[in-house]
Amino acid sequence: MLFSECLGVTYVDLSHSLHNDTMHWPTAMPVTVQVVAKGETTKGYWYESNNICLAEHAGTHLDAPAHFFKERWHADDIPLSRLMGPGVVLDIQEKAKKNPLAELAVDDITSWTEANGPLPDGAVVFVLTGWGSRYGDKLAYFGSNNSDGSNLKFPGISLDAAKYLTALKGDSGLGVVGVGLDTPSLDNGASTTFPTHVELFEHNIYGLENVANLERLPAKGFHVTVMPMKIREGSGGPARIFASIPDADDVVSAHFSGRSGAVKYLAPILLVLIAVVLIITV
């Protein structure tokens, strides 16, 4: 049995698969997956191979801070420690149902913290808009079929909310490390100057766009791992993102959510000791 199974950890894939119909920014090149080989060779073994061609910002992907701010981290500069951390979900689905250009506001963040406590140090903050259910349908997802990127309609994050997030600093001084959502962009579809991108990226907070399955996550108490393609001086890149959700155990939950500094470091040791005891006694 896997150790994760003993702990009762559930993994949620937060990435869409790449294929020829992958959602991409209207002005960017489409994803092309060309089959080179697929079948049994003359020597008797099975062989599959593909060529792929795509823009950095296609499908589920990471926006590096350098994407919208000079002399900030590129994709290959982001420390690994910032690609792993506690995750939270802020739900604005009701607002988005009424207004396709709805934005996460400061009030949404403060309402979340009143109900759930402060955002944990090193948090990856996800915004659930409900737009993920539209992924795969270009008109429904982007709000327009225009190839020039005009008349787009989808939710995003307000500049005031972005400023609020960049100002947060926990006990370690780390604050929020990444912000993601289930839409094509951090800024809503009407934006032409992308102020939310600029604000977050100035502070080396990366973005995650076209994120999948956010509706399967709890509001807090899970761990996020982001694995972007390591492109030298990349402005971003395709990413495999997943969440680890532990069983509702106080010790494990505290470790994953980062709420308690002492428990955060003791929890892994306690878990190993428990596993050793189980092995010895079985």
Automatic annotation (TrEMBL):
Pfam families: Cyclase (PF04199). One of its GO terms (molecular function) is arylformamidase activity. InterPro entries: KFase/CYL, KFase_sf. One of its GO terms (biological process) is L-tryptophan catabolic process to kynurenine. Keywords: Membrane, Transmembrane, Transmembrane helix. The chain crosses the membrane at residues 262-281. Belongs to the Cyclase 1 superfamily. This is Cyclase. It comes from Penaeus vannamei.
